[in-house]
Structure formats: structure tokens, C-alpha cells
What we know:
- This protein has helices at 27-30, 41-60, 114-118, 134-151, and strands at residues 3-10, 13-19, 68-70, 76-78, 84-90, 93-99, 105-109, 162-166, 171-176, 183-192, 195-200.
- By secondary structure, the protein is α+β, with helices and mostly antiparallel strands.
- The protein has 2 domains: 3-102, CATH 3.90.470.20; 108-200, no CATH class.
- The strands form 3 sheets. Strands 7-11-10-9-8 form a 5-stranded antiparallel beta sheet, with helices on one face. A 4-stranded antiparallel beta sheet has the order 1-2-6-5, covered by helices on one side.
- It is globular.
- The model has no long low-confidence stretch (mean pLDDT 95).
Amino acid sequence: MPLLLSKQIDEVSAYAVWNIQETFLKLPYMSPEPFPTDLNLVRQSEWIVGRILAKSLSEKFNINFKGIGKHETGKPYLIESDANISISHSFPIASGMIHLEKSCGIDIEHPGKNYLKVQKKFINESEKKYKYDLMSLCAIWCAKEVIYKIFGRRFLSFKDEINISFESDTVMRGEITKKGHEETHRIHYEWVRGYLLAYGI
């Protein structure tokens, strides 16, 4: 199986990355739960691999995987479990994260030129120094996606209510500035096969 990496972060969390190489005909037989047939083949494969990763991560912590549900906000959760999960995909790469105690977020993206075109929609004044740096823009976008997933609610502006700064080559600092919801998170990031992977709690 094309599992690129599986990493135990600490005693209560782990993440994994999968490179989708299976054919669209093979993947349905690998699905750990019934899959939606109304999705196009790429989205269907991402959906299935997301469940495969969630099941694999659950088994690391002896959790009986019974499928994934979604809250009203769209945030996924493990059925009949208090563990927290997050899933991301940028075909053909998919990633998943589990944390037994805290809300978590994971995101994986390819640094395409589109970030240069749409940066005005997600970078603020403090981040404008990176406006010509494609890799940094990709990292900032990933970090904001992670923060959004941790937040677990709708109506959080990427541009106006999330600030990202770089602490090192592997850690970013993410701040939610939304009134009444002020929080700070450390976002870890690394490159995997040319894709930027970011995760945090």
C-alpha cells in the first residue's frame, strides 16, 4: 500500500500521509465503510483514502473504527469515539491526523502559482512581506486551514481573523484574533514529496 509515512507525534496523537496510486476500480474494494457513488472519481478516491487513513490512525490507539460522521459545521468526527480527527487531500496525496484529547487540524497542499494570484484573499498586513514568496504563501495558507479546522466553527476570516508568523523552518505560530475566540496555536510543517504538510492542535 502507498502509505508515505505514519508518525506517532506523542502518546495521544499521530498523523499519516498516503500517495493515491490505486486505480479507481480498486479503491472501492478498499473502503472501510460505504462510499458515496455520486462523487466524481477523484473526489471518490479522496473520500475513500481519507477513511482508510482514519481507520489506520484509530487502530494505532486501539479505537474500533465505526466510520466518520460530520458536524453541522462540516468538521469530521469518529462515530462512537471521543477522539478528534482531521483529514486533508490534494490529489494524489492525502493526509489524516488523530488526537485523543484535543481538537486538531491537518492540511496538505501543493505550492502552485495560484497562491500568488489569490493572496489578497488570505494574507493580511503582517504577512505581506511574503507576497512574492510562493513557498511561504503556501505555508501560510496551510497553517490557516489548520487553524480553521481546529476552530471547528464557521465564519472565521482567513485574512482578518487569523495571523501567521514563522518561528522556525518547522514551526509556525497561528493566532485567532476573532473577538471572544482569541487563541494561539503552534503549527508544525514539513515537505513531503513536494507537498507542504502542516498540522497542529
